Amino acid sequence: MALEPHVIHALPKVALHDHLDGGVRPQTLLDIAAEVGHTLPAGDAESLGDWFFEAADSGTLVRYLETFDHTIAVMQRAEDLRRIAREFVEDQAADGVVYAEARWAPEQHLAGGLSLSEAVEAVRDGLAEGMIAASNAGQTIVARQIVSAMRQNDRGLEIAELAVAHRRDLVGGFDIAGPELGFPPERLGEAFRYLQRHNLPYTIHAGEADGLESIWQAVQLMRADRIGHGVRIIDDVEPGDHGEWRVGELAAYIRDRRIALEVCPTSNLQTGIAPTYAQHPFGVLDQLGFTLTVSCDNRLMSGTTLTEEFTHLSSAFGYGVDDLYRFTLNALDAAFLSGPERANLQRDVVDPAYMLVN
Fold it and tell me: Where does the Adenosine deaminase domain start and stop, copy by copy (predicted)?
């Protein structure tokens, strides 16, 4: 039987793939847009939230990405980045998330005169404020920022250097984002080699809008620690004649080495990966032993929370508390957090809560 949302909400969860500019509160958008003179497509919070979901629910990644023009427009001042980062943490904590990574691309937030370092420091301050606010409310959450480079630009090495320079400013790792098709990971090879030399972990968006070649490059050429989305790995899995599955060499490599996939079910439906939750590759990949994690991608555009993502999966595949615990541990193990910090979260927060339910 599917788990009730209130049960899922109460359980500790881990969010690895959540874009800072994809989770802005509609009211915050309205507030800042009025101050900076940016015109939004709706004039009240409810209508604005509906507009974002409908615009993103188009079935194509290109149209989905267009919605970010509005959120990025209100994230050009230090005080706005700080506010949005603080609210990111508060909203995650309110949903029962105990560890969250906020990924964003500093190069997109310089129009107001900020330097790259000032932008990263503003997000750092917001995340820190959010963790304090959550703690004061009796909620445990640890937050980190993932600094992203836009794959269509030529600033990969510069942004990698930025991430390394600010690793003590709550920077957990690095990512590349933006249009995947036509901009393969190897374009930013110099950036990834720099990160390797400086021991900073990174994830790579791959296998969302492009297929197996993109995933292969991310894993075999760039040596990604995790894969953002990665669900197109299902293209390397075929049904056999007797109900079994044939797992291809790339898929087997990713499965056997437990390279975590950051799966975002609702976002995947919006961009055409699958027509329904029940037809999402998640069920087959889980059955075959892949290391799966669950995230929201963009809570504003997908009109979702991590509680809702797990609710959809529980309804589609019959997952229970033990399964949610397994996916949460997968995410915690893959988190860009120190080993002792991960162990402390599991021992002090995650395990006690799941033991109470069981």
Answer: 12-350
